[in-house]
Amino acid sequence: MSFSGDVKDELLRLENDARHCQIAELAAVLMYADTVKTDVLGGKYIELPADVPLVRQRCQILFDKLFGKPLLKEQHFIQDTKYVHKVLQTIKYGSGEQLVNPLLIKSLCCKRAFLRGVFLAVGSMSNPEKGYHLEYACTNVQQVAQIIDTLLVYDIRAKTVARKKYQVVYIKESEEIVELLNVIGAHVSLMKLENLRILKDMRNSINRRVNCETANITKTVNAATKQIADIEYIKEHYGFDNLKENLRQVAELRLEYPEIALKELGEYLSPPVGKSGVNHRLRKLSELAEKLRGD
Q: Is the overall model pTM greater than 0.90, yes or no?
């Protein structure tokens, strides 16, 4: 199962004993999954998405708790007029705009239930090992506004984008996705995400360090290679006997120890010289080699 499926499976099994929160969650699922339909005679019926079993299962749980009448295991049509009327009356259906009635989500706990229901209905989340992305695929801008306003209550800032027939609300910041999982009660998924974030950060830190050290080694090797080439050119075209004593010492040591760092090279000199002093002498030798090549 995908990470998104794991989150929804966790939410499916979440216990919620407060009736007002159950109503808010059910309203979110029914409205955002576009389940309330109108027949040719103008009557209302409920059609749960047959291809989204988690939504149907959650509705079965909530119908049982709220109305004491669970659906059959594979049932996704509700055409009993009295039953449908009772459901729509409970969720305060009226506008027909596929929105949850604001009266149902006044309290913070009901806002949490609302966001949980919406995620079950139209939410998804990418595999955090590949990237951080959580979204709600809405059918209209009114739904977008309702979700964004509710997220802002928890200081979660989302962005929007139009994608084909959908208006998408999305979050890409890992910290805000973690906060949203906490808000909707997906605490096991939250811990999995946090563990993945830690591993990912450690891996990135190690890679940065290795890349930095590799770059430094490459830079050192390239510099040493050029220094040796310059010194050998001086030896062949100028001669070490013509060099000042301090430059001759460095030149001979560099040829003898081509791989060691400047600091170590300086410790072989008599008297010892620091890294900057060795670098200064090698630079003088490179300038001399360039001058000889120019001549």
A: no
